[in-house]
Amino acid sequence: MHDRAGQPAAADDLVDLDGLLRAFTEIVPDPEDPAQQVVFGTSGHRGTSLNGSFNEAHIAAISLAIAEYRAAEGIAGPLFLGADTHALSAPAARVAVDVLSAAGVHVFVAAGSGDEAFVPTPALSHAILVHNRDRAADDPHRADGIVVTASHNPPRDGGFKYNPPHGGPADTDATKRIAARANALLAAAAGIPRSGPGAVPPGNYDFLGEYVESLDEVIDLAAIRRAGLSIGAHPLGGASVAYWAAIRDRYDLDLAVLGPGVDPRWGFMHLDWDGRIRMDPSSPQVMSTVTSAAEAHRDGSAPGFDLVTGNDADADRHGIVTRDAGLMNPNHFLAVAIDYLLGHRPDWPVDAGIGKTLVSSAIIDRVVASHGRRLLEVPVGFKWFVPGLASGDLVFGGEESAGASFQRFDGTAWSTDKDGILLCLLAAEIRAVTGRSPSERYRELTERFGAPAYVRTDAPASAEQKARLAALSADAVTDTELAGDPITAVLTEAPGNGAGIGGLKVQTAHAWFAARPSGTEDVMKIYAESFRGEEHLAQVQAAARALVDRALA
Fold it and tell me: What whole-number distance in Å separates Cα of residue 321 and Cα of residue 437?
């Protein structure tokens, strides 16, 4: 933990915007340097212009590669393009529009010139699904989209993500093809055509209006209004700022939009655990920004808000703060959300499942089983939920990093990407309908299913160790016990879909741990959970490190 974690940012913490934007156009990436090539992770290509990993040449190459990909896949409908509030998002979006238009793609960008021009990830996913509703899988008029966002990453970063016609993050097959073609274009160093005579001019789309007007198809906003809940919603300087104001006005809610609005340097933020500015609403240090703003908003002796929420820059993550318990652990809220929804969505198909990542809390398993529902446990990454949400085979998908989405009241798809706005509103619905806060509901769940202790830590790992961890087989684990309990399962593939997890998960009747390599740092991420308390959790962590060391020896 950095010694300034949780403290307000100072002038020295802020990015030099002029230098950042100059570097975007002036630095030409070296196509022979792996650190400067196009690499699609779980959330698209990310980097910063300052070190040659996110520059104009990258965006032009990726955009043309996407245009060629969609043509090869028979996608001839419009492409929805949205951008968040990171400083690099606007110039990257302009380059993308120019290249796509020159390639004959009809691009839709956000209508408006104010804060409504920023597009949250869930609003773009929703737009794709609305356009493609009732269209056949081979309909050439299907739409797809691009979100220009670095999500919760620091202000110096940029990000570029492709969402195919299913509305969610592209799968590995698509991203490999797009990245390979983009890197070939970078290496060729040939000029990529931009807008000019013959280009298809972009159109405007009301992302905000379509999203906000449809919200009562997925959230009981009338119940929230009737309950008279007082809500503080903090966009953390992100793309949801105009959306929260529009939701308040459209549905007549007692809702205050907290914070100073958009600031591409994020100078109003409190520093994250490592002393950096990062807009992660699952971080207690970051959410000091939210709680401080909520406290400052109080009027004298007023009791404050019933509920306070936060979102990251593209609003695909959520943070829930209750009056009785403060910031909720994302795992805790996922369990509460699933339990509530399965009891209050009577029209959801009874055979539809619930999706979770295999590093999410096992209390979710117990909650799902209590409702007689099927659990789909998948590797890390929201993309694994997309097929099920799109088809209706899943009614909920969520991951421990505070990202989730769920279906409309009628069981049809709302968003096949993470929707932080939706989950914040669900927290308000739970409070309004049940009369108890989500944190109170979680305490009730622990009385029924046990109180798990959960932690994620990072351990140093070389590139060789990370590669060996990712390639481990279950046979590499010869241990029969973990922290005193018999091992019941050793997994290197997710039980829900058989996909490789890129690491290892070991389970007992009362605990589990998972280890997987980081895609961006020289560390391995170790997740651990115990239903026997904090002391046993520490034993599980120690045993996990020793077990992994032996398996990698």
Answer: 10
Query: Hey, is 295 helix, strand or coil?
Result: helix
DSSP 237-280: TSTTHHHHHHHHHHHT-EEEE-S----TT-TTPBP-TTSS----
Residue closest to 123 by CA, chosen among 227, 213, 2: 213
Annotated catalytic, 151? yes
Among residues 49, 63, 151, 437, the one annotated as catalytic is: 151
Q: What is the CATH number of the domain that holds 534?
A: 3.30.310.50
Q: Write out pLDDT tens, residues 212-226.
A: 999 999 999 999 999
Q: Is residue 140 part of a domain?
A: yes
Half-sphere exposure of 351 (CA within 13 A, CB side): 2
Domain that holds residue 153: 11-207
Task: Give the pLDDT confidence of 386-430 residue by residue, as tens digits.
Answer: 999 999 999 999 999 999 999 999 999 999 999 999 999 999 999
Is 48 among the domain residues?
yes
pLDDT(485) > 60: yes
318-322 and 353-357: which strand pairing?
A: unpaired
Position 322 scores a pLDDT of 96
Asked, for residue 104, whether it belongs to a domain, the answer is yes
CATH number at residue 63: 3.40.120.10
Q: Of 207, 229, 244, which residue sits at a domain end? A: 207
The DSSP result for 420-445, as a single string, is HHHHHHHHHHHHHHHSS-HHHHHHHH
Q: How far apart are CA 387 and CA 279, in angstroms?
A: 28
Report yes or no: 32 and 186 within 8 Å, Cβ to Cβ: no
- Alpha carbon 153 to its chain centroid, in Å, reads 11
On the question of pLDDT at 126 being above 60, the answer is: yes
Euclidean distance between CA atoms 243 and 225, whole angstroms: 17
pLDDT attached to residue 249: 98
Backbone angles phi, psi at 419, to 5 degrees: -130, 95
- Convert the pLDDT of each residue in 428-465 to its tens digit: 999 999 999 999 999 999 999 999 999 998 888 888 98
Mean pLDDT of the chain: 95
Measured from the Cβ of residue 480, the count of other Cβ atoms closer than 10 Å reads 7
Whether residue 163 is contained in a domain is answered as yes
Please provide the DSSP assignment of 42-67 as one string. TTEEEEEGGGTSS-HHHHHHHHHHHH
Domain's final residue, options 176, 207, 238:
207
How far CA 33 is from CA of 204, 434, 463, 468, 521, in Å, comes to 38, 56, 17, 23, 17
8 Å CB contact between 431 and 307: yes
